[in-house]
């Protein structure tokens, strides 16, 4: 054997090792990215399930009221609270308000536009003013609450409906 043959075999081994390292590195990167994507997906699904349970509990509480004990003012207050809860859930589902956001005030405020109400949500870091339109009478139906805008407490618009 010559020195040239030894160098040729050594170079072939080095290239094989380099290919193994590069391909293995890409495979490892893909596995790690897949793991983090799956964790994020599971967290999003868990948050959506929790929000759905909250809405179902609110709707169930609204339906299980004794008719002879409650006044129309009580019904209106419960409907208003449910409206704010629906606004918050819609804002969370859009990813604008963080999943740990809570209602700062359970009752909505009127706005200048008829049928549009504003609710206040907050986290430890920020406060959000969520405006939505009530387009039908069933407050517990998510299709009846259309988000109009979401603003932070300093006036920054995070979301604005196109219409």
Structural notes for this entry:
It is built from two helices and six strands. It has 163 residues and is α+β, with helices and mostly antiparallel strands. The protein has a domain at 65-160. Strands 1, 2, 3, 4, 5 and 6 form a six-stranded antiparallel β-sheet that branches. Strand 5 and strand 6 form a beta hairpin.
Summed up, what is this model?
Helix content is about 50%, strand content about 20%.
Key phrases:
six-stranded antiparallel sheet, 163 residues, 6 strands, single chain
What multimeric state do the chains show? single chain
Radius of gyration: 27 Å
Intertermini distance: 81 Å
Kindly state the percentage of residues in helix.
Answer: 40-55%
- Taken in chain order, the helices and strands follow as HHEEEEEE
Q: What percentage of the residues does DSSP assign to strands (E)?
A: 15-25%
Determine the mean pLDDT.
Answer: 84
Biggest sheet: strands, sense, closure? 6 strands, antiparallel
Give a count of the beta strands, DSSP E runs of length 2 or more: 6
The shape, in one word, is: elongated
* Class by alpha and beta content: alpha+beta
Low-confidence stretches: none
Count every helix, treating DSSP H or I runs of 4 or more residues as helices.
2
Present the secondary structure layout.
Blueprint: H1 3-63, H2 72-93, E1 102-103, E2 109-110, E3 116-122, E4 127-134, E5 145-152, E6 157-160
Helix pairs in contact: 1-2
């Amino acid at each position: 054997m010559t020195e040239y043959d030894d160098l040729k075999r050594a170079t072939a081994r080095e290239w094989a090792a380099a290919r193994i390292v590069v391909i293995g590195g890409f495979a490892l990167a893909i596995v790690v990215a897949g793991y983090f994507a799956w964790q994020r997906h599971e967290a999003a699904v868990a948050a959506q399930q929790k929000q759905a349970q909250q809405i179902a509990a609110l709707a169930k509480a609204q339906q299980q009221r004794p008719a002879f004990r409650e006044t129309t003012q009580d019904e209106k207050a419960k409907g208003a609270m449910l409206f704010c809860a629906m606004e918050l859930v819609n804002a969370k589902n859009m990813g604008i308000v963080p999943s740990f956001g809570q209602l700062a005030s359970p009752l909505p405020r009127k706005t200048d536009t008829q049928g549009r109400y504003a609710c206040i949500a907050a986290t430890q870091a920020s406060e959000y003013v969520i405006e939505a339109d009530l387009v039908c009478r069933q407050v517990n139906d998510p299709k009846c609450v259309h988000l109009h805008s979401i603003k932070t407490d300093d006036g920054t618009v995070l979301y604005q409906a196109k219409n």
